[in-house]
Amino acid sequence: DDFLSMLHSGWIMFNAQNNQEVLDSLLMAFKISEDKNVLLPSVVDMDGYVLSYTDEPTIIPEQRLVDRFLGKYEPEHAFFKPGRPLIQGSAVLTGRDYTYFRKQHTRACFNALDVTRKVCKQWYKTTGREYDLTEQYMLDDADVALVTQGSISTSAKQAVIEMRKKGVKAGLLRLRLIRPFPERDVAEALDGIKAVAVVDKNTSPGKGGIMYPEIRSAVYENKERPIISGFITGLGGSPESTSLFESIVHKTLKDAKNKRGEIRFV
Asked: 86 and 169: one domain?
């Protein structure tokens, strides 16, 4: 997965479900990256072909609203000023200097958690479209949860509706911010869930899907840890259907009954 290959780059990473969210996330990303407590690049991921090669109704905000939302960018480190000496483009950092650089980088990345929350609220006030670090769908009373990212979340939500009609208390957690990883949000969202299916459209050979260990780590300190199974699907552009996600839910419930999660290609 070309997007997830950037996990250790130190960039702020967003994953969009639809084309409207792609546009909205790009505009929010400017404000997040330019925040003085962050000052890191951002990247917004959209699924190839499913979103990038298809048309979808999208609301484009007026320029005046965007200008008011973003405000004027006042760069602190982009230009040389006589009263503020700085070094740019240093080829080599060693020893404590490199440690200090990485510490600053890590701190800035974690700062993006609260900055993103704040920017999402400002975007909601500006446009009426609401976002957060994650999206919770019918999770309040769920026994089993699908964890998804990107465009497959649309089909997965429909599967949740169908499963509810059949008496299965299913829910969904969609990962929107990938880095910095919203660990606390994920842990709280999955608290009390008995079984979790992490659905990845990627694979890390020898470990399963790339998000699978991230979710396991996030819920480790929960008092009642769920049984977590990993499902790898959609590789090479293969389609995902509502029935596929229903099958994933059933397999996950079976794993929970056996008290052991598994990793499967579906």
From this structure: no
Look up the pTM and report it.
Answer: 0.93
- Going by C-alpha positions, the residue among 145, 224, 144, 215 that lies closest to residue 192 is 224
Q: What is the pLDDT of residues 100-144, one digit of tens each?
A: 889 999 999 999 999 999 999 999 999 999 999 999 999 999 999
Q: Is the pLDDT of residue 218 over 90?
A: yes
DSSP-assigned states of every residue in 161-225:
HHHHHTT--EEEEEE-EEES--HHHHHHHTTT-SEEEEEESS-BTTTBSSSHHHHHHHTTTSSSP
**Final residue in a domain of this structure, among 96, 127, 158:** 127
How many residues in total does the chain contain? 266
Whether residue 255 sits in one domain with residue 160? yes
Distance CA 228, CA 253 (A): 10
Q: Which residues span the domain enclosing 112?
A: 4-127
Closest CA to 232 of 195, 199, 204: 199
Paired residues of 44 in beta bridges:
14
Compute the distance between CA of residue 192 and CA of residue 181 in angstroms, rounded to an integer: 21
The pLDDT tens digits for 75-99 are 877 667 777 777 666 666 777 888 8
At 245 the three-state DSSP class reads: helix
